[in-house]
Amino acid sequence: MKQAGRIISLLTTVALMGALLLACGSNTEQSAAEQASTAPTTEASSSPAAESPAASAEAETGTRIFKDWTGHDVEVPVTPQRVIYHGETTGDLLALGVTPIGVMKNTEGSVYEEQIKDAEDVGFPISVEKSLSLSPDLIIFGNSDDAQYEALAKVAPTITFDTFAPLEDRMRILGDLLNKKQEAEDWIAQYTAKTKEMWAMLHENGLKEGETASVFTMYPGNRLFIMANAGLPQAVYNEDGFKPTPLIQEIIDAGEGFREISSEILPEAAGDRIFILNPVPEDAKKDTEELLKSTIWKNLPAVKEGKVYYFDIQKASSDATSREWLIDALPAEILKK
């Protein structure tokens, strides 16, 4: 698939920068809604009340066929116990109460770093040998690379997963796959309610209808990026919240998660409020400092009005656990005196 190469190259560069920029680089070729599973292969009674405890236990420990993101029909455990997750949104699983035994550990500084301290690092690219040593009963592979998939499928049932899908879609897919459907629906309902409360509180404290916002970050080599459709922008752009500027909307409509821009474009790109993602590499941090000292930056209306906010790029990510954290962190930063 065309997207595989783009995703792989993004993952390679993001090892230096942090997980957010990685999570921005691809449109999916298949709708996340197409990831569906069939009934368990362990046949159940047509009357739930008539099902015996033994039959129920057998269904929980049986297998079923699951159709993944790229169309594989995979026989997976009904209730996986030893999951390897290789992707950028590990916090999705944590929000459902599932701690993977193996992950891609680019998570230093993330809000869930402590939660996965005992998980093994399966590397990037994913190590087949390491994966095999962990004896997984399910591998969730956030990529569409056929060669890697075929190698992993020899280790354990492996499903491809679209880590760039909308949050609610990802949670429902994982809820289905991990036998956590109710947990997924409960999480979505709670998150939606809390998000609405957050925006209502911000409007009560000065946020105006239709205000625009921009999210920027620096990459090594004095490269300035405007973020459009992953991580913090997913939380910021909301029907009850901020709107993208016309340039950012153009980037979103073009299917780009981010775009490199020159500083001369800042007056066009900057919204009524500006969010800066603090980068990880030291040289990118220094470039950020230089940008903030520049005349073009200081003349932006949002800068003059003191409406610039800062988040560490590793914390302001796309996964469910980070998005929960942002419900508290976003208003705390905006309303900070």
UniProtKB/TrEMBL annotation:
Residues 81-337 form the Fe/B12 periplasmic-binding domain. Gene3D superfamilies: Nitrogenase molybdenum iron protein domain (3.40.50.1980). It is found in: Cell envelope. It comes from the Bacteria. GO terms for cellular component: outer membrane-bounded periplasmic space. Pfam families: Peripla_BP_2. SUPFAM superfamilies: Helical backbone' metal receptor. Residues 32-60 are annotated as: Disordered. Keywords: Signal, Transport. GO terms for biological process: iron coordination entity transport. Residues 1-23 form the signal peptide. PANTHER family: IRON III DICITRATE-BINDING PERIPLASMIC PROTEIN, IRON(3+)-HYDROXAMATE-BINDING PROTEIN FHUD. Belongs to the bacterial solute-binding protein 8 family. This is ABC transporter substrate-binding protein. It comes from Paenibacillus sp. BIHB 4019. The lineage of its organism: Bacteria, Bacillati, Bacillota, Bacilli, Bacillales.
